[in-house]
Every structure is written in structure tokens, then in C-alpha cells.
Amino acid sequence: MPPNLYSSHHHHHIAAACCCILLAALVFLAIFGPRHERIADYRTLGELRVATRLDALIYRTDESGQYAGFEHDLLVALGKRLGVPVRFIQYPDTAHALEALVNGQAHLAAAGLSRSSQLPLAWTAGLREIDFVLVGRAGGKRHTLRERDLAGRTVTVRERTKMAETLELLRQRIPGLKIVNPPPDTDDETLLMQTATGQIDLLAADRAHYAIANRYAPRLAVVYDLPFKSTVSWAMPLQDDNGLAREINVFLNESSENGFFASVADRYFGHIRRLDRYDIAFFQARIEKRLPRFLPYFREAGARSGLDWRYLAALSYQESQWDPEATSYTGVRGLMMLTVDTANRLGVENRLDPKQAVAAGARYLAMLQKKLAQDVPNPDRMWMTTAAYNIGLGGINNARSLARKLGKNENSWVEVKSVLPLLANPRYANQFKTGPVRGGEALIMAENIRNFYDILRHTYPAERPVLAKPRQEPSSLGPRLSARAAPARL
Predict the structure, then answer these.
(1) Rounded to whole angstroms, how far apart are CA atoms 316 and 334?
(2) For site-directed labelling of 119, which of 192, 199, 286, 490 has its Cα 20 to 30 A away?
(3) Domain shared by 283 and 367, yes or no
(4) What is the mean pLDDT of residues 306-320?
């Protein structure tokens, strides 16, 4: 079963089924439309060709120019298993990606696809369970709508999708409900930001996309849960003589068993629901009012330590909310909440001096990162380092040791964070000299900082991160292909 990443507890499956325009059109195209030669075996071509589209969760380039995305990362790993590089062929929307697959231009379509038995395609095991929601601007204390409240509202939804199919059912029974379609090549983040600014009344969206955008636009809110859930899968041609479908399902099963799948999912989904909209709004207000005063210190410390200054600023906010005189009940003080011992070791004369505090905090974080076991990969390495900033390197090493004893992967953040709260339990803590440690607090801290860092990267997008070495595509991939074929004539 696919992981239920962010599905509502109040969903009901639609009892009635209807056939959307896209499904009918693609079936017609496959049976009666122009026929293309079947794509050659991926081993013969020396590459796995994947039809995809730009999307924050599927396939995108990050600010350092590296390719990323939940489905992208899984597919790169699949290519390594198959012994061939993956060539991602970018299409403007889902319809074109599926059409390319039907026409023999790709081995696989990976574009956030909802599996359907009505398409002449084979489907892999599920990657994640999704649910669909209507997103609008939050207003007042109550922003949840009832079905009758949708009368007279305008909903923007991508045409020829399952969400459009669901909304058509609603439109038939809700008077005055209007449905409009955006340009097909408009990305989800743009649509969500237009909703946040009021340019779009209501938007039909995947809950995971909403959760990502909500961190940058806290005025967004889920106003209505669409009564439909689906599963994201990869699509393949029905006839599969080269055994690709079997290889993919073996890969997905093994990835689920060895924790790789969970690690990739955590990278993109594991932290995005940690903050609520009020936390985010408060943080954004602090970015505007408090951060400018300390920006020079964070930038200088980042340049000297080799760390992204935005990550240092995110850590500092979690520690002190950018209050240079902050003091905790344990005696740690200043912007970076340094202990007396740590400050003395780092040569800090005054923990309340912002410049000294930031420089010392950056050196300390870099030192922890360097001392952590070298076999811990990025980005897991940085998240464990962040937890160590709270509970010390000994604490995180204890968590890694406990994870190993419990049969988990001590080099995986998603595995280590699952045992961090156990460090406060005497049953487990007594195994270590340090005794009980507030591992749950370190977990929350690290996850919050990941969110604050994402928001700061969105606020300051021109900065090039040096938090971790960029992940390179295989050198044999060649240039990315861009296919923007004309829409199918329906």
C-alpha cells in the first residue's frame, strides 16, 4: 500500500463513476489515432526515457540548478538498479506526458498520475496516496465551507484531470458553481500563490501541494475536502516484453523494505506539516522586522563556515526567535542559545553580542557536522547535525546506536528520528552513560528548522546554498529534452 502522506480523515469515496474527457480521448487516440513504433528496449537505447512535467513534488530544478523531486529521486535510483541513466523528457502537462507514452515516445510516464483502469496503460504499485481539496483564502476564525456554500463560487481546476471529473459531479448538483481552467503549463505553486492573493477564488489541489505552499503563504487554507482519494503511480505501455514492469515493482518493494522509499518521502513530505499557519505568519513577520538587523552577521558566518547563511538564520530563529538577549531556563543565552561551556570553548566573550554569537554558533554547527560519522550521507547528515546542536553529538550518536540495536538504519534520518523520543525513556536511556536525553525536543527542533530554512530559501531565492554538496545527474544523461507538442485534437 502507498504511504498515506497527507490524507484527510473525513473523506468518502465517490460511489458514482464517470469518464472524464482526457480518459476517453486517450483511449480513442490509442485505438484509432496515429500509430507510432513501439519504443526500443531501454537496454538497447542505453537509457530509460521518462515522460514527466515540471512540478514541486515530481520533477524540478532547485536553486543550484540540480534536478530534484520525489518521483525524480526514485527514478534516478531505479535507473541505477537497471544499469542505465534516466532521461527525463519534459512535457507541459499530464495529458501530453500520457500521450507521449501511448505514442511510444517514452518507457514510463511519471507526472503525479492518478492510476485509472480506463486508460490503455499498465500501472506500477502505488507511490503515495493523495486526496484532493479546495483551497482558498482564510478569513476570520471559520474558513471551512459546506457543500451549499459552494453555490456561486468559482473553482479553478486543471482540465481533463480526476479533480475536474470530481468537480463536474459537484457542479451538477450545486447551483451556480462555476468551473474554470488555468493555462495548461501554469505550475501548481503559481496557482496556489494566485489563490493566496485573491486572484483565484477557489483552487482544486492536491493536499501535499497545498501543505508546501502554505509555508510561504499562510493565508491559504483548505476550505473544502473533495470527496475523493486516489493513488499516484507510474504508467507504462500495456505490452511490456522487456520486463520493465516487473523490474519496477521489485525495485519499489525492495525500496519499501530497506527504508529507501521512506527516506525519499521524508525528504519531501516528512516535515511540511510541522508548523501551523499561525507559526508561519509569526515567522514571516519576524523575517520582515527582526532579521534585517542580523543579516550581515549570518552572511559573514555562512561565508566563513561554508554553511548556508539561511540555515544558520533558521536555526537561530528556532533557538531564540532572533532575540539577542534570549535566555532559557537551562541557562543557554543569546541569538544562538550557547551554553557557557560551548561559548568558552569557542572563545566567545559575550554570548549576548549578536556578531559573536552567530559566528560561534556557525563554527559549532560546522564542527558537529564534521565530527558526525562520515558514512552518514546528505541531507540526512545535516538534519542529524541539527539535532546534535540541541542534544550534543553524544546524544545523536546514542540515537544512532539505539536505531542499530532495533534493526534500523543508523545512517538514515527517518530511521534515527523515529527513536529520538526513546532517549527520554529510562528503559532505553539507561543503556548510555548520558542517561535520559530530551530526544523528542531535538526532533521537533530539527523539523522546525527544515521548514524555516525552506521559507527563507523562498524569501531569498537568489542565494546559492552550500549546505550540502549538490546531487549530480549521471554524466551520460545529456541535456534535458523539452517536448511541447501541440495538444491532442479531441
Answers:
(1) 9
(2) 192
(3) yes
(4) 96
Contact 133, 8 (CB under 8 A): yes
User: What pLDDT score does 19 carry?
Assistant: 37
Q: Are 6 and 269 in contact, with CB atoms under 8 Å apart?
A: yes
Is residue 434 domain-resident?
A: yes
Does residue 9 fall inside a structural domain? no
- Taking residue 439's Cβ as centre, other Cβ atoms within 10 Å add up to 27
219 and 192 inside one domain: yes
Residues 404, 372 share a domain:
yes
Q: Is the peptide bond before 292 cis (omega within 30 degrees of 0)?
A: no
For residue range 267-304, list pLDDT tens digits in order: 888 888 788 888 998 999 999 999 999 999 999 999 99
Band the pLDDT of 240: cuts 50, 70, 90: low
Which CATH number fits the domain that encloses residue 87?
3.40.190.10
Q: Is the pLDDT of residue 102 over 80?
A: yes
What residue has cell string 521524508? 266
How far apart CA 306 and CA 465 sit, in angstroms, is 9
Q: CA 403, 404, 406, 407 torsion: positive or negative?
A: positive
How confident is the model over 25-49, as a mean pLDDT? 68
Per the annotation, the verdict on 319 as an active-site residue is yes
**C-alpha R_g of the chain:** 24
